[in-house]
Amino acid sequence: MKVLNLRCNAQHPFEGWFGSEADFQDQLARGLVACPMCGDTRIEKLLSAPRINLGAAQPPQAKGTANVAAAPSAPVAMDPGMDTAAHARFLRALREVVARAEDVGERFADEARRMHHGDTEARQIRGQASLAETLELLEEGVPVLPLPAALKETLQ
Fold this sequence. Notes:
Layout: E1 2-8, E2 13-18, H1 21-29, E3 43-45, E4 67-70, H2 84-100, E5 102-105, H3 108-116, E6 125-128, H4 131-139, E7 144-147, H5 152-155
Parallel strand pairs: 4-6, 4-7, 5-6
Antiparallel strand pairs: 1-2, 1-3
C-alpha cells in the first residue's frame, strides 16, 4: 500500500492510499482522485515520507464517546496554513472515529439526544442531521462534530 501526500489546485492537502504508483497515476489520469474538501480533481503529488512498521504496538484507545453528524451544509473550520502531515492526521483520526461508530442514519439527532439524557446506552454513533438539528443539539450541550457531506465518501 502506498500512502501519498496530495494537494488540490485550491491548496487543500490530503492523503491518498493506492496499491502502487501505477494505480495512483491511472486513477489520476481517469479523474478518480478528488480533493475530499472541495472535490477538485486537479491534484498534485507532494513529497511523502515512508511509513515504517516497528512491530505490533497497539495505539491507545480513545476514552468516552464521540457523536458525529454529517450535516450537508455545516462548515468545517480547517486552517489553510496547516501542513500536509497535520491534515493527514486529522483525516486519519476522523476515519478511525467513523469506522468505530454505529451508523444510525437520519435518526442521528434523536439518538444523540437520547444518549445525552441517559435514556439509552452511550456509544459512538454517526449519521445525518440537518443544519438546524445540529445547531439545536449543540445549543442543548450534546457533543457533536458536524462534517460536510463531501467528506462522507472519503471517511468510509
